[in-house]
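Session log. Operator J.P. requested a structure for one protein chain; no other inputs attached. Running the standard single-chain path with token output.
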Amino acid sequence: MTTSTKIKLSEIISPAFYEPWRALDKYTTVVLKGGRASGKSTTAALWIVTELMRNGVDALVVRKVGATLRDSVYAQLKSAIKILGVEAHWEERVSPLSLKYVPTGTRILFRGADDAIKIKSIKSADNPIAILWIEELAEFRSADEVGVIVNSVIRAELDAGLKYSIIFTYNPPKRKQNWVNALYGTQFINKNVFVHHSSYLDNPYTSKAFIEEAENVRARNEHVYNWTYMGQPIGGGVVPFNNLTFRKITDEEMAQFDNIRQGMDFGYAADPYAFVRWHYDRTRRKLYALDEHYGVKISNAEAADWIKARGYETETTIADSAEPKSIADLKSRGISIVGAKKGPGSVETGEKWLDELEEIVIDYERTPHIAAEFEAIDYQVDKDGNIRNKLMDVDNHTIDATRYGCENDMGQGDGSMKIDNSIYTSFGGRRREDSLW
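Structure written below.
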């Protein structure tokens, strides 16, 4: 530091945050998520203040709504300055909102994302903006919205010895499929991102009154407690697939898999197309994810070319029967494909069958979209918050494709899910029962 102030940071920050504090020097993006009063925002503020006092860079602090800045992050950073005992070296400014470290002139700037133009055009006259803190990340509508802000900050090359640091802090939303939970709430994180989860139990400075209230909530409703205080995206409160195993599937295992199931869920523009390939160990009742083809604006021709390039065309694929023309088109391109026999309760039956398997083994490197969807999916809830016996109809394309591909293995009791290939004659892929759908 440029002043004589000496601070022992280990006496200020919680031990639970030692690792993410060090990670801020190594990773471009550090995500601090968790429940209420965990200390994540305090840690972010302390780190930013110390960095500006050590290095000649500026910081930008953003929230979704500009009106919330002064009573949240601005107050949090002022508190961090006070905790560090360096108030004499900092200057406050209300319009525009900023904090200035007087010895070097470095500043902390504040902006609301409700005025995106001001963020995109923001520049610092004397120092580069190398630190970005977005508080309450879950307030933003999408990763793309946040990406615009990030790219506005990191567009310029920094001088040697400096690096960009991006900090996201938030309480996880309840819904597991929320984009924030999908990005940072799973075990599949980009290598340049460090994710840390914390709760009030990790914060030695949490008041006794807060702890007592948290325990009272826990006694009344552990479901609410897990979300509010532990920061868990609880969804409906019941995990649809607790039989998932995420691990590497070796080439040696792949060579032994021969009981193949292939399924396809059609999509094109905003709705993704999904092709999945599985091995089903009938004896042990285990599914192994082998391959996938997933994306938007994938034409039938492109899908057929990909399947044939992989050598999968002779293995029958069971597809969504809602698109008989696409099925007929893929047949004409040399793909062995039939439509799924849907019927009343077939969706619930298929989801229940998957849930009751002994194990669903998924290798994220081989099938990242299958992994992401199976891990994040949740049950639907009614208007009163009661759980329905059906998965949410969002981000479930590989799951639907899996149901189709495995339908011959399920529903043997009443035959509602059993397929009869004999009906595919001269109808170009259309079913006689089309009127039922």
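Operator note: Residues 412-437 have pLDDT under 50 and may be disordered.
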